[in-house]
Amino acid sequence: MSRLNVLKTYKIYIGGQFPRTESGRYYKAYGKDGEAIANVCLSSRKDVRNAVVAARKASKSWSERAAFNRGQIIYRIAEMLESRRFQFESELLLQGMSESEAKAELNLCIDRLVYYAGWCDKYQQVSSSVNPVSSPHFNFSVLEASGIVGVLACPTSPLLGLISTVIPSICGGNVVVAIASEKLPLCAVSFAEVLNSSDVPGGVVNILTGNIDELVDTLSSHMEVNALVCSGIQTETLHRLKENAVENLKRIYAYSVDWSSERGQHLSFITDVQEVKTTWHPIEKIGGAGSGY
User: Which of 8, 66, 94, 243 is deepest in the core (most CB within 10 A)?
Assistant: First the structure.
C-alpha cells in the first residue's frame, strides 16, 4: 500500500526554545528532485522582535562569561555536530549536494568551529594594544562585544555560510539573531538543535526561517540591533540595510567570500563585530625622590 510521508516541521529557534511562528504560517522546502521534503516556519516581523528581546536578555551574561569558557562551549558544538554527521549529510543530499560535497561541507563546518573555539581566549591579546601617549598615563585599547548582531545567512550555503557568520560573532561575546537561507533552511534549524544540546545559553543564538524580503526591514531597523552581517545578498537588499541602519548607526558587514576557501575563516570576522574601548590610567609616583615610578 502507498502511504503519505510525514514531513518534519522545522521550527524556529528563539530564546533556547523551538516555537512555531506566531503567525501560524509555513512553507514547503523542496529537494533536488522537486518533491517536498519538509514544512518550514514562515517567520513574521513579530518573531524577529521576539528574537531580539531574547537576545538582549542573554547579552550581558554571555559577554561577561570567561573567554575560555566560551571556547569550551563552541568546541562542544563541534563535538555535537560530529556526532550527528549522518543527519546533516542526509539533509545536504536532500538539498542538492552530492555525497562527496556533503562530506566536505560538514568537515569544513566542524573544523571551522574548532578554529573559532581556539580564538575565543586569544583574539584580545592579538588585537588589543598598549598605546604610546605623551602624558603620564597608561593608554589601553581593548575590544568588547557590540551587543546584538543581526545575521543574514548566505542563501546558497545551507550550513557552512551560517556557521561562518554566526560563530565569529558569539566567539567575541556578541549574541545573534540570524535569518537562515530561505530555499535551503533544513541544516540551519538542525544546527539550532545542536546548539540547544551544546551548553549554549538560550538567547545567545536565535535562528529564524522565512522570506528575507519580509523580515529584513524589521531586523535592520530595530534599535536594539547593534550590527549587521550578511553574505551573498542582492544589491537592492544591501541598499535597504544601509538605509535602515542609519537610525542607530549600525555597522554593516557585507561579505563576498567563498566560505569553503581559506578566506572563509579569519580573525577579522571576530574583530569586525567588536567595539574598541580605550582606557586612560594615570601613572602614579610611588616612594620618595629618586625611587622612580
Answer: 94
**Strands (DSSP E) along the chain, which ranges?**
9-10, 26-30, 36-41, 129-130, 137-145, 148-152, 175-179, 205-208, 227-231, 251-255, 274-282
pLDDT at position 292: 43
Residue 23 is part of a domain; what is its CATH number? 3.40.605.10
The amino acid sitting at 149 is: V
Number of domains into which the chain is organized:
1
Domain that residue 226 falls in:
9-281
Residue 284 scores a pLDDT above 80 = no
CA-based torsion, 44, 269, 227, 56: positive or negative: positive
Angle between helices 186-196 and 85-94 (to 10 degrees): 160
The strands making up 9-10's β-sheet, listed across from edge to edge, are 9-10, 36-41, 26-30
| pTM for the structure as a whole | 0.91
**Is pLDDT above 70 for 189?**
yes
Location of C-alpha cell 601613572: 283
